[in-house]
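Researcher: Next sequence.
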Amino acid sequence: MEEIDATPRFRQGAGRLSLDFVRTLRYRGTPGEQEELPDGAALARWVRQCGPALDTPPGARAGGRPGEAEVRAARALREAVYAHIAAARSGGSPGPEVAARLNGAAAPDVPVPYLSAQGALRWRADDPVSAVLSLVARDALELAADPALVNRLHECAAPDCGAVFLDSSRPGTRRWCSMDVCGNRAKKSALRARTSA
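Model: Next structure:
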């Protein structure tokens, strides 16, 4: 089996698996928008980095690494998740195509937990990509169905970011998807503006 690069490269920390998956379209809605899932290797890396720690490496199932059709389906699922979350945030409901896409993606088996001989919690899945994307779809369905969580979904205040995140802070006033990246940049920019004035 061909070795898959496990170097972390995808952003996490949006508060839910489905929101982290939506972030694979980086800088959504900005001129710098970037596709982070251009091919099967990238999709397999996302599954490895962001899904549960699977014993079955992504791409090890029959048929090898995810193909172009699976990548297109994953990107379509990502856009359905985004549309579903946006509809929930605006008090609307997703259209029938979005609902069908989410329901279909949520149907496959999810990774199964088990205890290893050493007593460690491990996960396995016959089709790791399908199993983790099923988790993504189920997470999005549950998230959008909970009004208390929907009320805590915010867009990052950085104008060039476009990420949606779940604000789990006590006061619910978090402004940035990441204090280390977007928040830090905004504070440095504000400091430069005050200093130059």
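Model: The CA atoms of residues 143 and 149 lie 6 Å apart. The helical segments are 17-22, 40-50, 68-89, 96-106, 128-144, 147-150, 179-196.
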